[in-house]
Amino acid sequence: MPEFLLTEDNFLSALNKFSEGDIERSCLAEEDQVEFEEISDGYDSDPDLDYVPDEDDLLQEDNNTLEAIKEIEASQFVSTPSASKRVKRNRPRISKVLNNKAVQDGDKIVCQIDGEDGIVVANNGFLWETECNTSVAGKTPTKNVVHIRAGPSSTARQAYSPLECFQLFFDPEIVGIVLQCTNEEIELQKKNYKNKNFDGTVKELCLEELNALFGLIILAAALKDNHLNTTLMFDNTFCGDRYKATMSERRFKFLINCLRFDNKTTREDRQKTDKFSAITDIWKILLKNCRSSYKPSKYLTIDEQLVGFRGRCPFRMYIPSKPNKYGIKILMMCDNSTKYMVDARVHLGKGSVPKNISSAEFYVNELISSIEMSNRNITMDKWFTSVPLIQNLLIKKKLSVVGAVKNNKPELPSEFVDKKYKNRKIGTSAFLFRDDMTAVSYKLNANKIVCLLSSMHHDNTISNSGKPKILMVYNETKGAVDSFDQMCHNMNCHRKTQRWPMCIFYNMMNISIINAYVVFAHNAVRNSRGMWKLMSRQDFLLELHKQLTKPWQERRMIQQNISRNLKRSIGTVLGAKTGWPNILPPPQPDQKGERRYCSFCDCKKRRMTTTYCSCGKAICGEHQIKMCPECN
């Protein structure tokens, strides 16, 4: 994939392409998600996400980083018709805006809710006000001011190569656990391979070979070979020499089958209290690394990801609105600006949530534990949003929320969600206010009322398109997790498997790769001034594959028991830049030993010889081939 030259002129085009195309498409598959028109006005580049004392310098640096990432990612998704080619919609023309109330040809597009003394009572007795506090309207409240600079943490700022960025998340502790548990499984499965021809296939795994295995999985993701049959993958006429130069097809299949992530002997006891025990150790380490390696911006999104899986799993779910339909549900929190995955929790089914709290509130409190008291904003869909949760996050956690809410919530008055109230017209908005929280209902069409709650806003501002500002902010910040999931599907490490721990492990690799690319892009932009070239995500994966597999390929090159053609393939993969002819072993003198029959002569000749090949076979003069080291 060609490199992109990022300049100041194409920054805005990249941002528009990402916000209007990518996020709009990624939200179409959202379960019970309201369909809104995407409007891009660069909201997520608000300078409040930087440190106040050094605002000018940091704003320029962070904007350059975000634009670079969005330019690369926008080019990798399926193109959509440009905004100029879309069908024009009949939008209400706003001729006048006065005191936060828009007027169109004499008809107000704000539907006023009637209440006694400006108070509206909900079905459960919850009180709302019909008028907002105009003294604070238009100002940035203290609760929305963020004094944290978004970007990699202090340790992650020193990672410059793809391998260094990847190892921030897939650290030596995770690799060590996988190596130890896999070797234990290899020892158990060796008993099933009594033929000596399989000695090379079932041998013990070393660190370099395990990294090479990860490199092959990443290569298959970059080239979208992850669902190819291994016979095709290791056929150099179809997929080149890289797979075959790293390891044999039989060894690859054996190692994939033997990958384990926990102690098998103690698993049964741990499963009584933890359904996720087969992979929980390395999963927790990965989440800890994700939280500690990056400081998110002030807008984050909480949503769900369904990792496709149709095998046996005690917490497999069926969600018909998702592309995969069957799979493992993961609740995620992602940074809206860069789609960095900050934290995640796996939904383990019934019994995994305490009885005195709802599932939505439990998972939200778990996900926001690393960003409490930071004044950031969380965007959520209707499965999570509720009035008690918003009040709790604002008062106790110092976090604001913008979220869609179900129309049947008891805190919402009946007239607020009634489609026929006062013969409401399409495109009208109704507002209610309570302390530091605002509710808005927007009539999307004749049969649809969309309700949203926000603790970030406290006004009834209507945008130039006739839609409330709360709805515009929700549209711009709701798609981070969906975009992250789309990036996972675009270059996916997942391979066909019947073991759910392997399914989670492949998704962990996807998470590590995407987060590593975000850190890599931040560091590359920070250390470049003016013009720079940033590699695409596919090139990032290919370079990561090379760095993971090169040590094992060089070690394999000097082994004595591989064929001449395989050495040539490895040399081709390593290339002239590594000087691969120089790493060949020096020419070995003829190995003299006891007289034996030539391994290649037929039974009639039965020649005896004392010369042996490097592979250990006896070879007579007729079957010897002389060649120089370079040809070898």
UniProtKB/TrEMBL annotation:
One Pfam family cited in the UniProt record for this chain: DDE_Tnp_1_7
PiggyBac transposable element-derived protein domain boundaries: 161-517
Domain of life: Eukaryota
The name this protein goes by in its record: PiggyBac transposable element-derived protein domain-containing protein
Source organism: Clastoptera arizonana
